[in-house]
Amino acid sequence: PNPAGSELVLGESSAGRVAVLIDAEGREAYRLAIAANARLDVSSVSAGSYTLRVLDGQGAVQTAQRVVIMR
C-alpha cells in the first residue's frame, strides 16, 4: 500500500530484481534484492517521500514510482 508503514508490497514479477529507495535529496536510502514474496521491510527507513526504483540484473531501471513512508 502507498503510503507505507513498515512494508512495501511489489508485484511478483519484480522477484529477482533490486529495489532502491531514493530520498528527496537524491541519496540512496535503501537497497535490497527483491525476494519471491516481493515484500520489502522498510521499517528502518525514515518517514518521508521517496522514489522507488526497481532495477534489473544489469542495473537498468525497470520501473520508478513515488512512495510515501509514514509512521
What structural class do the secondary elements suggest?
mainly beta
In angstroms, what separates the terminal alpha carbons? Answer: 13 Å
Rg over alpha carbons: 11 Å
Q: How many strands appear in the DSSP assignment?
A: 6
What percent of residues are in strands? over 45%
The tally of helices reads 0
**Gross geometry:** globular
Strand order of the largest sheet: 3-2-5-6
Helical fraction equals under 10%
Can you give the mean pLDDT?
Answer: 90
| Order of helix and strand elements from N to C terminus | EEEEEE
Q: Which parts are unreliable, with pLDDT below 50 for 5 consecutive residues or more?
A: none
Biggest β-sheet strands, sense, barrel: 4 strands, antiparallel
Structure description:
The protein has 71 residues and is mainly β. It has no helices and six strands. The protein has strands spanning 7-9, 18-22, 28-33, 39-41, 48-55, 61-69. Strands 3-2-5-6 form a four-stranded antiparallel sheet, with no helix packed on it. The chain has a two-stranded antiparallel sheet with strand order 1-4.
